[in-house]
Amino acid sequence: MTTPEGGTTAAPGETRAGRAAPPRKDAVARPLRRGPADPVRTLMHHHQELCARAVDALEIAAGLEAHGVTDRTAARFRHRDVFSLAEELYARVPRAAPDAAPAAVPPHAPARRSRTVCGALQLLPGAVCVAAAAALASVTTATPAVRTAVGASGLVLLALAVRLGVRSGPLRLRHGTGPRTAGLWVCWTAGYAVYGDWLLGQLLAGGPDLPHAAPRAAVAPAVALAFALAPAAGCAHWFTVRGRRVLAASRGLEELAARVRPLLLAATLLFLGALAVLLLGTEAVLGGGDASTPVAAAALGVLLFLARLLAVHGFPGAAAAGLASAAALEALALALVLIARLPGLLPLGVPVEALTTAVGPAAVPAVACTAAALGLLVHGLRALTGACAHWPAPSGPAEAHRP
After folding, report:
1. I want to staple 125 with a disulfide (CB 3.0 to 4.6 A). Which of 16, 161, 277, 300 is the partner?
2. Rounded average pLDDT over 188-195
3. 173 vs 176, 186, 293, 387, CA distance in Å?
4. Of the segments 47-51, 82-86, 128-132, 173-177, which one has the largest average pLDDT value?
5. What confidence score (pLDDT) does residue 179 get?
6. What is the mean pLDDT of residues 276-304?
7. To 5 degrees, how large is the angle CA 137–CA 141–CA 146?
């Protein structure tokens, strides 16, 4: 390089001999490791469909929680909780155009009419059960074929009425159909509540003497459980409405869980109280068996209520598991009595026989259903405290991401 005085100087970074000088250690630029300038953008792309179709930020929060995003995860995206993260996603992602415009609801079709229809459908199983019991009582002197036909017809009509009752209103599933075996476990536990005490007594006495043995049904518990569908729907509706209000008012998943747990316990106790009134009323009017029969029916009612509540809020697998465990315990009791008849295996039937002698045959379903109901209640206190459990059909199966 030529200077104004005519001389030359070395270019920057070069020596006078023309060679490049080695760079100084302190002059080496080290690239800074920085996170992305917009950490939420990755989450936006990952949950694009959820955010685009959400009607508000709460639906996005429910979907994120269903996919395993917690308050700790939200902190990595520079947010204090899932709800504030969902609010940013809702504000930044444009809404998707609806596929079709919703049909206009005629003004002459108020919501009260649908509520009346749902209420009538939920009372229908009780009415059908009373009619079936009256029909069976009227054919006590008829031939066994006639009694069997009347009983089978009553069971079919009752099953259809229950199906109609649970497919409308608060007990309607919003997260798919669930395991197909759940219906089998419901039928088993309900059938055992009606005929299980008679069957266990016959097995312990060395019977039953088939085909001459005439099954004796427990009518009072059956009628009470059939009418219990209405208070179950009311308690489920109360829990759902309060849960969504708590979801809207909560500012974190821990706060939401702390406020939902008392709601679940209150709904369970409320249903148990209503069921106890029904059981006492039917026992007073129709009469019943031993003192443990209402306890067993109450345990079964609470088990069915918790199972349906879990299924409605997106956990049908857990509901089916609870029902299956109760059915397995009842079947095990019957199997042990039969196995004890084999040579050398008499001690296997001693526990069931001792329990039945001390308390009554209804002690077996009481123990089985109580244990299963407690298991579902403990699971519900964990599973029903998430945001995904209080929003209709969140994106993705909720159960796959909950403990």
Report:
1. 161
2. 92
3. 6, 16, 30, 17
4. 128-132
5. 76
6. 89
7. 80
Instruction: Determine how many CB atoms are found less than 10 A away from the CB of residue 15.
Output: 11
Buried b (16+ CB within 10 A) or exposed e, 353-364: bebbeebbbbbb
CB atoms inside a 10 Å sphere around CB 381? 14
Contact 175, 393 (CB under 8 A): yes
Q: Is residue 98 predicted with pLDDT exceeding 70?
A: no
Residue-wise pLDDT tens digits, 325-365: 999 999 999 999 999 999 889 899 899 999 998 988 999 99
- pLDDT value of position 211: 67
Tell me how many degrees the CA angle 222-226-230 measures, rounded to the nearest 5: 155
> Any idea which residue has 């008392």 for tokens?
262
Query: Tokens 């909720």 appear where?
Result: 398
* Residue type (1 letter), 1: M
Number of alpha carbons in the 13 Å side-chain half-sphere of residue 215: 18
Question: Is 90 exceeded by the pLDDT of residue 401?
Answer: no
Classify the phi-psi angles of 6: left when phi > 0, otherwise alpha if psi is within -120 to 50, otherwise beta: left
- Full 3-state SS string of the chain: CECCCCCECCCCCECCCCCECCCCHHHCCCCCCCCCCCCHHHHHHHCHHHHHHCCCHHHHHHHHHHCCCCHHHHHHCCCCCHHHHHHHHHHHCCCCCCCCCCCCCCCCCCHHHHHHHHHHHHHHHHHHHHHHHHHHHHCCCCCHHHHHHHHHHHHHHHHHHHHHHHCCHHHCCCCCCCCCCHHHHHHHHHHHHHHHHHHHHHHHCCCCCCCCCCCCCCHHHHHHHHHCHHHHHHHHHHHHHHHHHHHHHCCCHHHHHHHHHHHHHHHHHHHHHHHHHHHHHHHHHHCCCCCHHHHHHHHHHHHHHHHHHHHHCCCHHHHHHHHHHHHHHHHHHHHHHHHCCCCCCHHHHHHHHHHHHHCCCCHHHHHHHHHHHHHHHHHHHHHCCCHHHHCCCCCCCCHHHCC
pLDDT by residue (tens digit) across 222-260? 999 999 999 999 999 999 999 888 877 777 777 888 888
Structure tokens at 6: 């005519």
Find out whether 127 and 162 touch, Cβ atoms under 8 Å. Answer: no
156 closest CA partner among 121, 182, 193, 131: 131
